[in-house]
Specification:
single chain; alpha/beta; Rossmann fold; 2 domains; 9-stranded mixed sheet; 14 helices; globular; binds nicotinamide-adenine-dinucleotide
Amino acid sequence: MSTPSKPATDTSRRTFLKSSTAATVGASLATIATSQAVHAQGSDLLRIGLIGCGGRGTGAAKNAMNADPKCQLTVMADAYDDRLNRQSRPALERDKGLASKIKVTDDTSHVGLDAYKRVMDSNVDVVLLCTPPQFRPVQLRAAIEAGKHVFCEKPVAVDAPGVRSVMETSQMAKEKNLSLVSGLCWRYDRGVKATIERIKAGMIGDVVAIQENYLANTLWHRGRKPEWTDMDYQLRNWLYYTWLSGDHIVEQHIHSLDKAVWLMNDEPPVSAIGLGGRQVRIEPRFGHIFDHFAVCYEWANGVKTFSYTRQMAKCKNETEDFVIGTKGRAKVLANQIEPTDGDSWKFSGAKPSMYDLEHQALFAGIRSGKILNNGHYMCISTMVAIMGREACYSGQKIEWDKALASEVRLGPETIEPGQALEYSVAMPGRTKPS
Ligand SMILES: NC(=O)c1ccc[n+]([C@@H]2O[C@H](COP(=O)([O-])OP(=O)(O)OC[C@H]3O[C@@H](n4cnc5c(N)ncnc54)[C@H](O)[C@@H]3O)[C@@H](O)[C@H]2O)c1
C-alpha cells in the first residue's frame, strides 16, 4: 500500500474539492484522455474489469453487464483465490443471461493484494472498485492514472488523508474526461430523487432539522480457518476493523448521512458531537468497532442532523430519513411528503433497481461523451461519516476543517501477510480524535 498524497492546501468547507490540482494533472493528459473517451463512444465494445470479487463486486459486475448492450467482463482481481475462482467467477458464469458477456479466463483472473495493478495494465475501459474501503484511495488513483472509467463503491476512504487523496483523484478524473460514478446508490433511486428534489424546491418550506436512522441487524462474520494468518483474519472480516472499514458509521450509515448531505446542497456540516459504544458485540472476534453511534451534526445555517445507527440483533429496526421543515415534514425513504398546508404527496412512479440505474448512467455517460463525476459528494459524505466516528470515539466536539486536515492515517504502510495488528476499542474521554 502506498502513502496517500499530501493534503490539498485549502481545506475550508467552501473550497473543498474546488482547489485546482493542476500541479498534479497536466493539461496534456486531458487531451489524451478525451481521445480515449471518444473512442469508447458509439458501438465500440466496452471491456470491464472487476476488483474485489465479493458480494457487492459480483453484484456490481452483473449490474454493469446488464447496463450496456456491448460490454464484456474480461478481467477480475481479488486478494483471495477462493473469493474469485471458487465463488464470484463461477457464480457469474452460471448466470445464463450473461454468458455471452463473460470473457474472463484463468490468465485474466488475478489474485493477491497487488492484483489490482494487473487490471490497470489490461485493456479494460471500465473498472469496478469493490474492495474494502481502506484500499479505495490507492486503487482509485491507479485507475484514473491508467485512463479507466470507474464505478467506485462507498465509502471512498477510512481517514482524512484518504478522503483528500480521493478529492484530488476526482479532479484528475474530470481533467482526463473519465467517468467516476459512486456506489452511493440512493442518489440514483427514482423515488428518493423525486422526494429530495421536491423538498429542495420548498414543498415543506425551509429544512430545519433532519433525523437519520439506520437501526439495523448485525452483518456477516466469516469465522476463522486454521490456515489463515492474523492479517488474513482481519482482511476476511474487514467490517470489524476500523482501519479497513471505517467502522459501521462509515461503512453502512454513510447511505443515510449522504442523504442529509444531499438535502444540504452537498455542503458539509461545521461540527459534530456524539456518543457511541460497544455494548453487545463485544467478543474479540468482532475486532474493535462500536455497535452503536448517535451524532448531532450542525451546518453553518443552524440546521441540525440527528443521526442514529446501530448494528444489534433482536432490537427494533428502522431505516428512514425524517426531514422537518418550516412548512411540513417528509420521509425520504418512504418517498412521502406532508406539507402543513396543501395535499400530501407520495412517489408513485416505476422504481427500477437503483443498482442497475447507477451503472446505466455510467455507461450512457461514457457512450455519449458526457462524463459523470460524483467525486464531490462521495468525498463529503465519507468525511462526514469519519467526522461523526471521531466525535464518538473521542467524546469531543469535532470541527469539519480540523477533521479534514488531519494527518492521521489508519492502517499499516504496507501489509505483510503474517502481520498481527493490535487495536483497542476507543474510549471516549481518553481516545484522542484522529
Ligand atoms: N452500495 C451498497 O449498497 C453496498 C452494499 C454492500 C457493500 N458495499 C460496499 O462494497 C464494498 C465491498 O463490500 P462487500 O460486501 O462486497 O465485501 P466482501 O468482503 O464480500 O468483498 C470484498 C472483496 O474484496 C476482496 N479484497 C480485499 N482486499 C482486497 C485488495 N486489497 N485487493 C483486491 N481484493 C481485495 C476480498 O477478498 C473480498 O472478496 C465495501 O466498500 C462496501 O461498503 C456497498
